[in-house]
Amino acid sequence: MTDSRPLDRVLVAGASGATGEELLSVLRPTDLTVRATTRSYGNVDTLERHGADEVVVADFFDSGDAVAAVEDCDLVCCALGSPPCLRHLTGGKLVDRTGAINLTTAAVAEGVSYVVLESAIGVGDSKAGLSLPARLALRGVRRAKRDAEAALRRSGLGYTIVRPGRLTDDPPSGDVVVGQGGDSVTGSIPRADVARIMAAAPFTPDARNRTFEIVSRDGLSGTPHHRVDIDWADDILTARHGHRHA
Ligand SMILES: NC(=O)c1ccc[n+]([C@@H]2O[C@H](COP(=O)([O-])OP(=O)(O)OC[C@H]3O[C@@H](n4cnc5c(N)ncnc54)[C@H](OP(=O)(O)O)[C@@H]3O)[C@@H](O)[C@H]2O)c1
């Protein structure tokens, strides 16, 4: 981070999802105040058990909910996504576009320091990372995510966009292959690895205002191109350990 503002409160948008839950466990031991979101009051207790200090019930289709969710936040990690549905093919109203853009707009208005967006391999210039059938089946959601990525890039906010390959619930591998420029790497990656990278990105100067494709070394398919070496600031998350939650 080049910003000198202290980074105290992080919003995990989509904390009730599978990547969101991993983000909570990565952030839980740090001294950041972690605010989690879900659309369901029924998830509040679970999110608190998973380490959220605050829970906001918000539907990001509603721009007012987005504004309330980011209030007083310094960092945003966006793990929003729509479950498999016909709109992944046809497009239309998807949280991957409308919700993520509402979040970016609210983050600009709030003066948030940094936003990390979970996108996907297959979006924008990374379309070659998906097979043709998958590309077609996901055409609508890929376009939605492309628009969300574009809105974040032009927002003026500090950002990192991570485009993971196919997500798994495997334990973290700790060995992630990073590419940049679209047609770089393809394969799969545990959500736990994605979460570590998302949490470290705001503290990693090399990651600022860049878009990465990421897979785990074990999950890599084919030959990687345009690899980049990023020294992810995991140590900063470790150094921030324990001040509140010890
Ligand atoms: N599946 C894959 O292989 C794959 C590969 C690459 C990238 N991705 C992307 O990675 C991201 C995370 O995927 P995941 O499978 O870990 O997540 P997930 O389990 O599908 O969770 C999605 C989250 O989005 C929230 N959400 C959905 N609609 C919302 C709305 N209108 N307002 C507020 N919150 C809303 C859900 O909250 P509720 O509790 O309220 O439902 C949930 O917390 C997604 O963007 C996905 O497209 C997926």
SSE map:
Elements: E1 9-13, H1 18-27, E2 33-38, H2 44-49, E3 54-57, H3 63-70, E4 75-78, H4 87-90, H5 95-110, E5 114-118, H6 132-137, H7 139-153, E6 158-164, E7 166-168, E8 176-179, E9 186-190, H8 191-200, E10 210-216, E11 220-221, H9 234-239
The protein binds NADP nicotinamide-adenine-dinucleotide phosphate (NAP).
What is the architecture at the second tier of CATH?
A: 3-Layer(aba) Sandwich
What is the subunit arrangement here? single chain
**Spans of at least 5 consecutive residues with low confidence:** none
Largest sheet: 8 strands, mixed
User: Any idea how many domains?
Assistant: 1
Beta-strand residue fraction: 15-25%
Measured on Cα atoms, how large is the radius of gyration? 17 Å
Rounded mean pLDDT is 94
N-to-C span: 25 Å
Would you list the SSEs in sequence order as H and E?
A: EHEHEHEHHEHHEEEEHEEH
Helix/sheet category = alpha/beta
Shape estimate: globular
Number of strand segments: 11
* Count of DSSP-assigned helices: 9
Report the bound ligands by name, code or SMILES. NADP nicotinamide-adenine-dinucleotide phosphate
Q: What is the CATH C level class, in words?
A: Alpha Beta
